[in-house]
Amino acid sequence: MTEPPASKIKHRIMVMSGKGGVGKTTVAVNLGLGLALYGKKVGILDADITGPNVPKMLNIEDAVLTGEEDQTINPVELPIGAENGIKVVSMAFVIGKDSPVVWRGPLKMQALKQFIEAVSWGDLDYMLIDLPPGTSDEPLSIAQLLRPDGTIVVTTPQDLALLDARKAIDMSRGLGIPVLGIVENMSGFSCPKCGGAIDLFKVGGGMKAAEELGVPFLGKIEIDPAICETGDSGVPFILNVQSKTAEAFDEIVREIMAHYEEEQKAQTSGE
Predict the structure, then answer these.
(1) What's the half-sphere exposure (Cβ side, CA atoms, 13 Å) at 34?
(2) Sequence-ordered strand ranges (E) for 38-123
(3) pLDDT tens, 13-44?
């Protein structure tokens, strides 16, 4: 009997947002790289078939997927240090960076299934699944094929984004997938000269939603122009070790690792 595609992946985390434009891919990429910097074996599945942006943010747009004689697909591997790296699969490797994907739902789901079942992901500690915004076909298919053990919901402090974040949380719960927590992106802005908070920018909505919905609040990422610059240049922001915002990403990474370490301890003690 063939092993299920997720059998060698310890933790499978969906990165969701109820609406677009909240920086979900930025969060997914930086968290994936952060986990790799801690020595974890990481894969990123770019499940946004019609808007695949993960390769752009990792500066691997020109890479292509290769195959083996047994029809398995090799993911693109991005080295992180001398002995580690991130495995990435994205539709951008198949169609090229400038080509649109004008597909109906069944074709998108077929592509997702192939990215999961035909790719030789190997042994991974974490797989981050960067989903398209919303609560439609893609998360349903991922839930069925990969059986994720966690969801991270990315939102911004605005009321509209928070409303849609609640929908993503409700969907995750309905699928029986634990919500690891909320990340509040674009949360406030500090003066680049003095470091003081500028009150014109909203902050705190994600924390309030987490309290109301009874899910953990993983942290907030301030508005930082350097995040846009590094995303466009393909150098993930978390590598900027001198930045307070990079430190915020690192804290969220440590929260995620601590959650699974505590879960493992609880399972071991209960045996």
Answers:
(1) 24
(2) 42-46, 66-67, 73-74, 76-80, 84-89
(3) 999 987 778 889 999 999 999 999 999 999 99
